[in-house]
Design brief:
The complex is a heterodimer of chains A (about 475) and B (about 280).
Chain A (H helix, E strand, L loop, with lengths): L15 H4 L1 H17 L4 E4 L6 H6 L3 E4 H10 L4 H9 L8 H16 L16 E5 L6 H9 L8 E4 L12 H27 L5 H23 L10 H13 L4 H19 L10 E5 L10 H8 L2 E6 L19 H13 L3 H5 L6 H12 L4 E7 L3 H18 L2 E6 L5 E6 L3 E6 L9 H22 L1
Parallel strand pairs in A: 1-2, 1-3, 3-4, 5-6, 5-7, 7-10
Antiparallel strand pairs in A: 8-9
Helix pairs in contact in A: 2-10, 4-6, 5-6, 6-7, 8-13, 9-11, 9-13, 15-16
Chain B lengths: L5 E7 L4 E6 L3 E6 L4 H5 L1 H12 L6 E7 L11 E2 L2 H12 L5 E5 L4 E7 L2 E8 L7 H11 L6 H6 L12 H13 L4 H20 L7 E5 L6 H11 L2 E3 L7 H20 L17
Parallel strand pairs in B: 1-4, 4-5, 6-9, 9-10
Antiparallel strand pairs in B: 1-2, 2-3, 6-7, 7-8
Helix pairs in contact in B: 3-9, 4-6, 4-7, 7-8
The chains are: A alpha/beta (about 475), B alpha/beta (about 280).
Chain lengths: ~475, ~280
């Protein structure tokens, strides 16, 4: 008898909006399959590359390859694709999103159809691939080059999206014009490539409308997430790992805007009713970075079961309000995309300069610690994501050097204010984004237990 | 006057089960045998500890279980992690201590402590190379006892570098080095340096104070304690019996729970206890 595959039970979410995401993602995946049948142009794409609105303006359907790998991970069905990539000679220590995608694509190309029981119908074959020379992540260049070996007829266009690395003696304003020119040129180059591939010209008026909508959505997301400052917080990072979908996969669509309008209303209602993620909120934690282990999102529920909530996260929050990004007035939608890109990445630079030993990433942690009244930080060090995760430990070390303990004024039993030292303990979880072999539930939860006890001790002293 | 209030701490680690019964001080402390099957028999260790302390099971006011086998102890009132228990246990032996490094059979951890409670910690439970298991495996490969390693290493004049990060490959490497004619003292010193290096790099995140306490089975190895002290630039103390630190802390936390309950009038969390075998997961 064939062994029946165990399906993970659905994770509990705090908001209705977050619980509606899974069908949206499924629809988006099946939508790409349908689009292929209808003859629409499909592009392998990476999230956060500032080209979302450009693709939409040209009726190109993005196929978010990181998303599909994440889905395989969340469904605990990535192993067979990882193993296939490994059998092709790719090291298991490479980005497991990329490995999963490479394994899947090679299998699909070999079969000339989707691999058996491919999650949600499978990842469709693209017409072209849009890689991105971001400083952020090297697989964004290499992944598509690797799969081109199995799909030599599918062209790649690389969009170079740099931002100036932080130096405390360099002013962004001194170099930003060069960066804007370069990024704008890159995006215009992308448009030319897409025009060649589709055989039609972009409609700039439509692009302008979409960028407008994208920016309105961008601000709405920020306003909505700021509602999570409330005590008790109405939404945690567990839910944000769902609500990131319309943020990073659907920016510039009316659907994304409507989604966040609805989430905004839901959070306001919860706040008015003092309805939190948990009944008795004891500890407010910051998810200080790292992609989550997609197969273990229930760990967020485990934190909740201990009275711990996550009102904020640095992961998938590529949003600060547009009006704070020092964007000049320009009617050119391509330039606006470039300014949005640069503005976001350099947003914390000036703040970091004002605090000796700080760094933009650390400054961002500090901002959230203060804004969201954070008691502790949790990070996830995913072994296969070198670019991002290696710096997390450094960020915590640096934070603790320059910011710990935090002096706070507390009202004592005698009614007088006295200065206390507020500690910000940190917990580093270790596993991977989709490689489940790196994960141990027992060990992870034992660490969480110890962390909660630590927070209890720290808070107990402050009481 | 003899106090009649007894508390027990049970620390079920990967290689040893430790039971401590306390009243004003340590009434008895028993370290049980190693191995998965014996771990299930933690109740036997408890019975020995009760016998040595001369008290009955029912007279124990509160029992706290800790260690990675803490979850299914049928005779414990509460489970507390090793992090909190070690912090408390260290403060029993060294009241002023602000940091503990615990190197056990299966994991290693650094704990920053204030007032007997953890304020931050780091932990390695992913890789055997930073734990006592690394010593067990390499000692076995060299045909020596783990307990002899410290003394052997102290006679070394020039330790060799063990380049493999993985315990299994390191095992192979030490055998090859031995075959190459490297002196046993230097080889063992290299093994211990490798472990000390891994652990000290891990705990540096916690901003190491001037004095630390080393606990766990590996703390019995004077050479490693010395290496940690040198690498971290601090003094290192070791409790009289470093293996029981967690169990002592567990018993003390049990006492605190009961005392707090007396003050607040709220009954402490208690379970229906059975002095029975431990279920391992």
């Amino acid at each position: 008898m064939a062994e029946e595959k165990k399906r993970p039970r659905k994770r509990r979410t705090a908001t209705v909006a977050a619980s509606n995401i899974a069908p949206m993602v499924k629809e988006s995946i099946t939508g790409t399959l349908k689009a292929a049948e209808e003859g629409k142009k499909l592009a392998y794409s990476f999230i956060c590359c500032s080209y979302d609105e450009i693709l939409m303006a040209m009726d190109i359907v993005p196929v978010w390859t990181e998303n599909y790998a994440g889905i395989c991970g969340a469904k605990r069905d990535a192993e067979r694709f990882l193993e296939r990539a490994q059998s092709l000679g790719f090291s298991r220590s490479l980005c497991t999103y990329a490995l999963c995608g490479i394994g899947f694509d090679q299998w699909r190309e070999e079969l000339k159809e989707m691999p058996p029981e491919a999650p949600w119908g499978g990842q469709v074959r693209p017409d072209f691939m849009l890689s991105s020379g971001q400083i952020l992540c090297d697989p964004r260049n290499k992944w598509y080059q690797a799969v081109q070996e199995f799909m030599p007829d599918v062209p790649i266009f690389n969009v170079d999206l740099p931002y100036p690395l932080y130096e405390d003696d360099i002013e962004v304003s001194d170099v930003q014009d060069y960066y804007i020119r370069h990024i704008t040129d890159e995006l215009r180059g992308l448009i030319r490539f897409l025009e060649e591939q589709t055989g039609k010209k972009i409609d700039y008026d439509r692009l302008r409308e979409l960028v407008d909508l994208g920016e309105r959505t961008w601000n709405l997301i920020w306003e909505t997430y700021e509602l999570r400052r409330a005590v008790p917080t109405p939404m945690g990072t567990g839910d944000a790992m769902n609500t990131m979908v319309p943020m990073v996969f659907m920016l510039g669509t009316q659907e994304a805007y409507d989604f966040f309008m609805s989430l905004n209303a839901e959070l306001k209602e919860k706040i008015s009713k003092k309805e939190g993620v948990v009944k008795d909120e004891k500890y407010r934690l910051l998810w200080g970075g790292g992609l989550p282990a997609w197969f273990a999102l229930k760990d967020f529920n485990y934190f909740n079961s201990k009275g711990a909530v996550f009102p904020a996260e640095t992961t998938y929050r590529m949003i600060e309000p547009i009006y704070k990004l020092n964007m000049p007035d320009t009617d050119d939608p391509v330039e606006r995309l470039a300014w949005r890109w640069l503005g976001y990445w350099t947003y914390w630079y000036d703040k970091a300069k004002k605090r000796p030993g700080s760094h933009p990433d650390v400054e961002r942690l500090i901002q959230y610690i203060e804004d969201y009244r954070i008691d502790g930080i949790v990070m996830h060090e995913a072994f296969s994501c070198r670019t991002w995760h290696l710096s997390l430990i450094w960020q915590v070390n640096q934070l603790q050097k320059i910011y710990k303990p935090v002096p706070v004024l507390v009202l004592g039993g005698d009614g007088k204010e006295k200065e206390m030292q507020r500690e910000i303990p940190a917990l580093i979880l270790e596993s991977d984004i989709i490689d489940i072999s790196s994960y141990s539930e027992v060990e992870t939860r034992s660490r969480i237990d110890a962390f909660i006890e630590t927070l209890e001790g720290v808070k107990g002293r402050q009481a | 006057m003899e106090l009649k209030e007894y508390y027990a701490g049970v620390d079920i680690g990967s290689t040893m089960t430790k039971v401590v019964i306390m009243n004003r001080g340590i009434a008895s402390a028993i370290i049980g045998p190693t191995g998965a099957e014996q771990r299930r028999l933690a109740d036997q260790v408890m019975k020995k500890a009760l016998k040595e302390a001369g008290v009955s099971f029912d007279s124990l006011i509160y029992i706290v279980a800790t260690g990675y086998g803490r979850i299914n102890v049928p005779f414990a009132d509460r489970q507390i992690t090793e992090i909190s228990c070690h912090a408390k246990g260290v403060s029993y032996f060294f009241p002023e201590s602000e940091m503990c490094i615990d190197i056990g059979g299966q994991d290693s951890k650094g704990i920053r402590i204030r007032d007997g409670k953890p304020v931050d910690f780091v932990m390695n439970d992913k890789c055997a190379a930073g734990t006592g298991r690394f010593l067990e495996i390499t000692a076995d490969a060299l045909g020596i006892k783990v307990g002899e390693m410290g003394e052997i290493a102290l006679a070394s004049k020039s330790s060799v570098q063990i380049s493999n990060l993985c315990t299994i490959f390191a095992e192979q490497e030490v055998v090859e080095r031995l075959a190459d004619g490297v002196a046993l003292n230097d080889l063992v010193a290299g093994i211990l340096e490798s472990l000390a290096g891994r652990v000290s790099n891990m705990v540096k995140r916690l901003s190491v104070p001037k004095e630390i306490v080393v606990t766990g089975g590996v703390a019995k190895n004077a050479a490693i304690v010395d290496m940690l002290s040198r690498r971290l630039g601090c003094k290192a103390g070791v409790p009289p019996e470093p293996l029981i630190t967690g169990a002592v802390g567990a018993a003390m936390i049990g006492k605190e729970i009961v005392e707090k309950a007396k003050k607040t009038g709220v009954k402490p969390e208690k379970k229906r206890r059975r002095l029975d075998k431990v279920k391992i997961f």
